[in-house]
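Structure tokens please, single chain.
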Amino acid sequence: MAGQVKRGSAVIDARPWYVANELLALLIELVALGLLCWWGFATGDNAGLGVLLGIGTPAVAVALWWLFAAPEAKLRPTLPGVVFVKGLVLGGGAAALYGVGHPAGAVIVAVMAAANIAVAEIFRRPVPGEDEPEPGAAGQQQPHGPKAS
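Here you go.
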């Protein structure tokens, strides 16, 4: 029927868009770590402090992400907690870019990170083997029949 979108077509909640957004998320995460590293090396008043901040700041961000925001996080909190940690790390990257003197770039990074987090969390796919939400049913689990044991 005209006007209806099939499940496999390229709409925002179909798999191709989800995968593209996940790849963009990886790129934004790597950029944020690089920006935190840049800020740390640029901020230190002496070489020792610069190295400590340049390596320590992204290391803390990686640890936070691994513990709370990664798909297989050890201490995965509820959605608001995950969004908070993602915002803290990715927003920290934007703040770091602002800190090294690039305010326009910082705004661009912040907007891209916020949009990516929103899309990623709204259209999060369940673990393979679990029921998938219907297209357009953002985050809602709807059964598709009996589950195989």
